[in-house]
Design a protein that fits this description.
heterodimer; A: 13 helices; B: 541 residues; Beta Polymerase, domain 2; Cytochrome-c3 Hydrogenase, chain B; five-stranded mixed beta sheet; 15 strands; globular
């Protein structure tokens, strides 16, 4: 009885910790994005609220929270309200399997990151529901694009991780990181397949997180704001939170799978993971402020004609090399 | 290019058509070779003959005389300055005129405008509804009898009609997505991030594929033409700065040129140089604004800031002489408002090499970008024939392979003495328009460098000029950043213009959008629209 009780308290505490981390992390990421965008665009970015404008995003968050909640007339109210939750909640699950260090993990599941990918797909139901229920054509167009895009990019995303799974021989994230104690999979996988796999993973995760240049579901210059055109206040904030957390999570998974997770000299493991993750997030932001947007059909072509064939090729090559390496041993 | 009238055309007109009236005009003053008054039934035949001889319809408008309407057609050639004018008369009440929209597609919008402003019915026009005014408005503002008092009966009636409009529209386009079939309507605008102002494009879509689209105008219609009719000539200056606020200097130039030609005066040489330098600087700043916003339409945010940074420097320079940063009101008849300040020439000289460096940077960042190339290549193709049929001018026309530039076709000011090229591309797609504008910025730099070297000292004004323009009709065109900006002036010798028609380039350029977007995706509509470089206040006037 007491065991269950302690377990419940533990889960509760974990939830609070994760939500706290997500909120603070998002506030920081938004600040970082704005600062970075500012530097790229020859301007200082947020400057006045707090030191170096650090509190600017806090002020923005307070503004969003205090806004009046408006519904579009003729929106489907139940679906309209449930969509932000559907988008935001599944991403939380990713923190379940994110290993911060040896044994520093909430649950070391043997299906590992597959669970995250499976749960993360619920997000797109949320996005479609958001677009459909708002009774707005721009929102509907955006959500249709989002669903098409995410179904397509799910495939190369999974294919690119399989090379790592083959090399580590497991789906558990802890064991995958442990298998990288001699070197990152990015470099140690035979014949550069690690590098290729990482590239495919990175491109697909950009598309999965709706980030530029694959941000067609919310393409500002075409669809105003895409699927969240009709959302404001706290509901918009939830979409925002979901989006930035998705970027963080996909970068964290990328650094776990390819960049050796917590491994690194001098400083403790968790810091290494965060550092690597932020480095990838920074590249994601850099790309957003550098490239124009693809068109929806070009995006599909890129997934089906480039990423998926290369993903399959990569998987085959990795399998063959690993098979022969084992024979030689 | 030499300004030669087509003698065989004149002969054909005199012999076959036998106009009621035929007047040879002085090209130097009135801007046209000849003027012919014909019967209304003959105009379609004449238009066909003009088309056969390679003329395009430059402008179509009407003038309200006390006893009748005059419908005025200006035809011109793309390769030489061969502008000529044909007129027909129609009765005052519910006047009828045959449509030219089957021959020249530019007449589609010109005729709709003449219809709403004067109430002339163009028989056979496929879609003769209001263009700039609210859809069911029945007032005809350009009639001399219309005074436009705020509480006048015609205005009140018009406001009632606007309400009815709204109801009719809601009936015609039900709110929800059409239940049967896959096609539906999408309003792109009037509030939309990429329409560059308040423009509405009614898109008929199948999924994301565009079946057809129709621009709906008039949201920023202020009726400059009517405003000018009730002001004296000098008071019209600010209107020209507010037509196209991005390239206001060229519009100043257009008005200055028209009035100076009509009065038969030539401004002092220093004035000409300063005008050209200011106009070309303004052209660069206009193209920079276009470049930034065009790339923003394609989803690239950063170039916008880079372009605005450079544009800012130009605005600072022009501010020194004009005191204004956007809606310039700098030119005067036969002169200028202020001379260049002493620190302006060094500032421009510093700006030129800096900007050249930045242009190279833009090419490296944008022109070599794979995504950009994929988005713009072969998109929104406007063929040479269609471009001329729609009366498209400026960079859009030059991207379709026609080297029409007013600075060369009908050389004015000091342009003939300067060495610069007219960039031309044959593809007619979005990328060609991008290339033309990018190269035009370089050519403008060349012009500025040469003009700065040669700029003489001297007075900047001719002194006092008469307050009125001699009785007559005048047409003059200059090259604005968006194309050929023509003004047609009817003067009765009084202190006010009797009628001013502003033939603005974006108006005709936007008309050609109808032809470019079918078959595109929604994303491409935004790209194509961005590549035309429209400024809404200039279209709506």
């Amino acid at each position: 009885m007491t065991a269950i009780f302690f377990e419940a308290i533990k889960i509760f505490l974990y939830c609070i910790a994760v939500i706290l981390f997500i909120s603070v992390n998002t506030l920081f990421l938004v600040w970082m994005e704005r600062k970075l965008a500012g530097r790229i665009q020859m301007r200082p970015g947020p400057l006045y609220v707090g030191p170096m404008g650090l509190l600017q995003t806090v002020a923005d968050a307070i503004k969003l929270l205090s806004k009046e909640l408006v519904y579009p007339s003729e929106a489907n109210k139940f679906l309209y309200l449930s969509a932000p939750v559907l988008v935001f909640a599944p991403i939380l699950s990713a923190f379940l399997i994110l290993p911060l260090g040896e044994g520093r993990i909430i649950r070391d599941l043997n299906i590992g990151f597959l669970l995250v990918f499976a749960l993360a797909n619920i997000t797109f139901i949320g996005i479609f529901v958001a677009g459909w229920s708002s009774n707005n054509k721009y929102a509907l167009l955006g959500s249709m694009r989002a669903v098409a895009q995410n179904i397509s990019y799910e495939i190369p995303l999974m294919l690119s991780t399989m090379g790592v799974v083959l090399a580590a021989g497991t789906l558990s994230t802890t064991q995958i990181v442990s298998a990288q104690d001699k070197g990152w999979f990015l470099f140690t996988l035979p014949m550069g397949t690690g590098l290729l796999g990482f590239m495919i993973f990175f491109c697909s995760s950009l598309a999965e997180a709706n980030r530029a240049p694959f941000d067609i579901p919310e393409a500002e210059s075409e669809l105003v704001a895409g699927f969240h055109t009709e959302y404001s206040g706290i509901r918009f904030a939830l979409f925002f939170l979901g989006e930035y957390t998705a970027i963080f999570v996909s970068s964290a998974i990328a650094s776990t799978l390819f960049l050796g997770g917590w491994h690194g000299p001098w400083i403790p493991g968790p810091f290494w993971l965060i550092l690597k993750t932020y480095a990838i997030v920074m590249v994601v932001m850099w790309i957003r402020w550098t490239f124009p947007r693809l068109r929806s059909d070009q995006l599909m072509n890129f997934a089906w004609k480039v990423l998926i064939p290369f993903g399959i090729l990569n998987l085959l090559l990795t399998a063959i090399f690993i098979y022969f390496e084992d024979l030689l041993r | 290019m030499p300004a030669v009238a087509d003698p065989s055309l004149k002969q054909w007109l005199l012999e076959t058509v036998q106009p009621d009236e035929f007047v040879e005009k002085d090209l130097k003053i009135s801007g046209i070779h000849f003027e012919a008054l014909v019967g209304a039934d003959k105009i379609a035949g004449i238009a066909r003959e003009f088309l056969k001889r390679g003329y395009y319809l430059e402008s179509l408008t009407a003038v309200d005389f006390l006893e009748c309407f005059e419908v005025v057609y200006h035809f011109d050639r793309q390769d030489s300055n061969a502008r000529c004018c044909v007129k027909i008369l129609t009765a005052k009440d519910s006047g009828h005129a045959p449509t030219l929209s089957g021959i020249y597609r530019s007449a589609l919008w010109f005729e709709r405008e003449a219809h709403e402003m004067f109430g002339i019915v163009f028989d056979g026009h496929p879609n003769l509804k209001n263009l700039l005014l609210p859809e069911s408005s029945l007032i005809h503002p350009l009639l001399k009898s219309f005074k436009g008092e705020a509480k006048g009966s015609d205005v009140v009636q018009s406001l009632q009609l606007i309400d009815e409009d709204k109801r009719d529209f809601e009936l015609a386009y039900p709110k929800s997505i059409s239940q049967q079939g896959k096609d539906y309507y999408l309003n792109l605008g009037p509030q939309h991030p990429s329409t560059h102002g308040v423009l509405r494009i009614l898109l008929h879509l199948n999924g994301e594929r565009v079946l057809d689209g129709e621009p709906i105008l008039g949201y920023s219609h202020r009726h400059h033409e009517k405003m000018m009719e009730i002001q004296n000539y000098l008071a019209c200056w600010p209107n020209f700065g507010r037509l196209d606020y991005v390239g206001a200097m060229s519009y100043n130039f257009g008005y200055a040129r028209l009035i100076e030609r009509a009065m038969g005066v030539t401004p002092p040489p220093r004035v000409e140089y300063i005008r050209v330098i200011a106009t070309e600087l303004n052209r660069i700043s206009s193209h920079l604004l276009w470049l930034g916003t065009f790339l923003m339409d394609l989803g690239a945010m950063t170039p916008f800031f880079y372009c605005f940074d450079e544009r800012e420097k130009i605005l600072d320079i022009l501010e020194m002489a004009t005191g204004e940063r956007l809606t310039y009101d700098y030119f005067r008849f036969g002169g200028l408002d202020h001379d260049f300040t002493p620190d302006m020439a060094p500032a421009i000289k510093r700006f030129i090499p800096e900007f050249k460096m930045h242009l190279r940077e833009y090419h490296q960042l944008i022109t070599k970008n794979v995504i950009f190339m994929k988005r713009v290549h072969g998109m929104g193709v406007l063929s040479r024939e269609n471009a001329l049929a729609y009366g498209v001018t400026g960079p859009c026309l030059r991207a379709s392979g026609v080297a029409l530039d007013e600075r060369r076709r009908d050389p004015y000011s000091i342009y003939p003495q300067l060495d610069f090229d007219i960039p031309v591309r044959a593809d007619g797609d979005v990328f060609a328009r991008y290339q033309v504008r990018m190269q035009e910025m370089e050519e403008s730099l060349k012009i500025i460098t040469q003009a700065l070297e040669k700029m003489p000292e001297g007075p900047i004004t001719l002194g006092k000029l008469p307050k009125n323009v001699p009785k007559g009709e005048y047409y003059s065109a200059v090259e604005s950043p968006r194309g050929s900006f023509g003004i047609y002036l009817v003067s009765d010798g009084s202190l006010n213009p009797y009628r001013i028609k502003l033939r603005t380039p974006s108006f005709s350029n936007l008309n050609s959008l109808i032809d470019m977007i079918p078959g595109c995706f929604v994303s491409d509509v935004v790209a194509v629209l961005g590549s035309i470089d429209i400024v809404l206040p200039e279209i709506d006037r």
